[in-house]
Amino acid sequence: MIYDFRKGHSAQYFSKLLTINYDFDVEEITLSREQLQQDEIGYFKRTKNNGMVRLGAFLPQYKDITYASTPALHIYQCETTEEKGFKMQIANSSRNNYWSRDRSKHVQAELQICKVCAKHLRNHYKISMGTNTFNNFILALEESSRTKQTLVDSSGYIINWRQVSHCFRDLKRFTCEKCGYKANNEQHYKYLHTHHISGVKTDNQRSNLQCLCVKCHSEVDDHHQKKFALEGLSQLLEFEQIRANIN
Ligand SMILES: [Zn+2]
Ligand SMILES: [Zn+2]
Ligand SMILES: [Zn+2]
User: Alpha helices of 29-133 — where are they, by DSSP H?
Assistant: First the structure.
């Protein structure tokens, strides 16, 4: 589905959604720069239940209709963000929509993080993202003792867990690392989970994470089997129904 951000209504609607009922299926909102919160690392927004989501900002309208290059995604207020007078669009995940200058064409792309912003992370926190994508940015933060999130919620997950999990599964293209099941639409993303290999929920280094479908996740060990039998049975059945329909 393509949303038209040229009209103010949808922008308001999405910013409201993001505050009240945060969900990663909603990938974009429009906020003015002033509404963003910022810490030493970059932009962020608080969500309900004291959750946190990191954001990037980009100019959604781009002059080159050939899309030879895409708008840069800024994760920090760097010196190249000269578009201050314009309304930047805010992103909470990797793939984003932007418009041609005359707003007649629309494209979705994975935006690359601005080189100056990336340099800031490297110099101040010794963080190297590998390729400069938003997914890698979010995940790389969890791999440095200086930037990893230490606040946890009542279930023991870090307060930005939803975003970390989303970015990790997106990096794995929503494909189960054990059986190869791939979610082919956003409604099925929920059947892929992010599993902590060591069992430690606060260790969110990529080497400790695994993208597993609900079935493979439920079979990891005795503890998971019991847990899924108690709380995850309906999703497991739903998933098996979907797989049966595909085959
Ligand atoms: Zn920048
Ligand atoms: Zn699987
Ligand atoms: Zn698990």
Answer: 115-125
**Is residue 75 within 8 Å of residue 117, measured between CB atoms?**
yes
Domain regions of the chain by residue span = 8-116, 172-247
Ligand nearest to the CA of 197: 3
What phi and psi values does residue 25 have, to the nearest 5 degrees? -65, -25
State how far the Cα of 56 lies from the Cα of 201, in Å rounded to an integer.
Answer: 25
CA 181 to ligand 3 center in whole angstroms: 17
Which ligand is nearest the CA of 227, by number? 3
pLDDT tens, the chain, 247 aa long: 344 444 444 444 444 444 433 333 334 555 555 566 888 898 888 877 788 889 888 877 665 545 456 788 888 877 776 555 456 677 888 777 777 666 666 777 788 899 999 998 889 888 888 889 999 999 999 999 999 999 999 999 999 999 999 999 999 999 999 999 999 888 899 999 999 999 999 999 999 999 999 999 999 999 999 999 999 999 999 999 999 886 6
Q: Around ion ligand 3, which residues have CB less than 5 A away?
A: 195
Measure the CA–CA gap between 98 and 101, rounded to whole angstroms.
10
Are 217 and 224 in contact, with CB atoms under 8 Å apart?
A: yes
Please tell me the distance between residue 115's alpha carbon and the centre of ligand 1 in angstroms: 7
- How close is the Cα of 59 to the center of ligand 1, in Å? 11
Q: DSSP letters of 166-208?
A: HHHHHHTTTB-TTT--B--SGGGGGGEEEEETTS-TT---GGG
User: Ligand 1 centre from 40 Cα, in Å?
Assistant: 14
